[in-house]
Write a structure and sequence with these properties.
- By secondary structure, this protein is of the alpha+beta class.
- The chain folds into two domains: 231 residues, Metalloenzyme, LuxS/M16 peptidase-like (Cytochrome Bc1 Complex, Chain A, domain 1, 2-Layer Sandwich), CATH 3.30.830; 181 residues, Metalloenzyme, LuxS/M16 peptidase-like (Cytochrome Bc1 Complex, Chain A, domain 1), CATH 3.30.830.10.
- Helix content is 42%, strand content 20%.
- It has a seven-stranded mixed beta sheet with strand order 1-2-3-7-4-6-5, with helices on both faces. The protein has a five-stranded mixed beta sheet with strand order 8-12-9-11-10, with helices on both faces.
- A hairpin with a 6-residue loop joins strand 10 and strand 11.
- Helix 4 runs parallel beside helix 9, helix 10 packs across helix 17 and helix 12 packs across helix 17.
């Protein structure tokens, strides 16, 4: 779509929609009848498009006793409605895959998303399915019981992954009150006891148009897509305000440590520092700090730890969540390396980052790396939709369109100040993984 066509779409009155804003080639509209947000980005000549619907509900929204409900419900959304289900003879997967669609869903802390990557000629089918299951989910008790076994198997698989266990341990230790304490998949006791009625209650709290954003990206006709969205979603009523009062995490008053011991893998260190929410002005500098520390062969921790023989891999970066999260640094130790030495080297480097400005060359390399990684991650309609999905969840879809611009304005002094205010020992949680020695039969 050329610029003239884009202006024409924005400037034309579309029945049932109100134009909100345009940024970075993406236009935001709102469905007048129920508050559904619609993001449109027509691009490219290939007649392939991605439809993604993002619900602002994740494990962050779960109350005590219902952890894992978001993820469980994500699974159940594919069991369908009276129109798309095994009972009807046409499941959601079958209906879409018969048209060459790639279809799936994911759950995370702040959101749940469902998507279809498919030929644009079948976009109307994907819109129909998403509108239908927004309010007409069956949630058959027998299907819930069947899927419970699937999810428990998934849970058990994660319990056998040492580094995933380490990640969960650090987050659940760092957050005592806030719901980021819970793993997205939930605690086993809640997975085992949640009922179809409990899932129905959860569904009825969050699955409404005014708590969702529909994004359409790729080679599609915007006028036709808007007409289809109005036709399929327009009659769905607006739900009650589904925002929940999430418990505010109290200030951490001292460093915390957790240790995981199990079979498998190599020793590892994961250190998390309390960091701000995605909308905070400090976040761009923290993203750049993560790049300076661990992205690329010339980054500081790569040279100190990997090239220095202390580690086999290292990574660092800040979470970009709706509420304050963690800046984490993960180190997979090389064989026979002392954990205390790795912790000492890491602390020295963090202290240096907080006390001395990074060089112009480091800043240039970090920005070049960020541009390359960001553009690569946005290659294709699905990749764009996926990145946009995270920005929606964090609080503003324009975090996606303005990310590189914001990062490019970060100075060495900004990074130093962000490091100084973030890398505080009393705000840290250290996770240590110690593999158990294999038992001799």
């Amino acid at each position: 779509m050329n610029e003239t066509q884009k202006r024409s779409l924005k400037d034309t009155k579309h029945e049932g929609f109100t134009f909100i804003e345009e940024d970075g080639g993406i236009q935001a509209w709102q469905l007048d009848s129920n508050g559904l947000t619609v993001l449109l980005c027509p691009q490219g000549a290939a007649r392939v498009a991605t439809l993604m619907i993002t619900y602002k509900v994740g494990s962050r929204n779960e109350r005590q006793g219902e952890t894992g409900a978001t993820h469980f419900l994500e699974h159940m959304m594919f069991k369908g409605t009276s129109r798309y289900s095994k009972q009807s003879g046409t499941t959601i997967f079958n209906a879409l895959q018969a048209q060459g669609a790639r279809v799936n869903a994911t759950t995370w802390n702040d959101r749940t998303n469902y998507y279809e990557l498919l030929p644009s000629s079948h976009l109307d089918l994907a819109i129909d399915i998403e509108a239908d299951r927004m309010r007409n989910l069956l949630l058959d008790p027998g299907e819930v019981e069947s899927e419970r076994s699937v999810i428990l198997n998934e849970f058990d698989g994660g319990e056998n992954e040492p580094y995933r266990k380490l990640y969960h341990a650090v987050w659940s230790t760092a957050f005592e009150a806030h719901t980021y304490h819970h793993p997205t998949i939930g605690w086993r006791s809640d997975i085992e006891t949640i009922t179809s009625e409990g899932l129905r209650g959860y569904y009825d709290r969050f699955y409404w148009p005014n708590n969702a954003t529909v994004s359409v990206i790729g080679g599609f006709d915007a006028e036709q897509a808007m007409a289809s969205i109005l036709n399929k979603f327009g009659s769905i009523p607006r739900g009650l305000d589904s925002e929940v009062d999430v418990v505010r995490e109290p200030r951490q008053l001292g460093e915390r440590t957790t240790v995981i011991r199990m079979a498998g893998g190599m020793p590892a260190l994961l250190v998390g520092f309390k960091s701000p929410d995605a909308m905070n002005d400090r976040m761009n500098a923290l993203h750049m700090a993560g790049l300076v520390l661990s992205h690329g062969r010339s980054s500081r921790l790569q040279q100190l730890m990997v090239d220095g023989g202390l580690a086999t891999s290292v990574s660092a970066g800040a979470s970009s969540f709706r509420d304050p999260g963690l800046f984490t640094i993960f180190v997979a130790l090389a064989p026979d390396v002392d954990m205390a030495e790795v912790e000492r080297v890491l602390q020295e480097e963090l202290t240096l980052l907080a006390s001395e400005p990074v060089s112009d060359r480091e800043l240039e390399r970090a920005m070049a790396k960020l541009e390359a990684e960001t553009l690569y991650a946005r290659d294709g309609s699905y990749s764009m939709a996926s990145q946009l999905n995270e920005a929606i969840a964090a609080g503003d879809w324009k975090l996606y369109t303005r990310f590189l611009e914001g990062a490019s304005k970060v100075t060495a002094e900004d990074i130093m100040e962000a490091a100084r205010s973030t890398f505080k020992k009393e705000q840290s949680t250290t996770g240590i993984y110690e593999p158990l020695a294999a038992e001799v039969a």
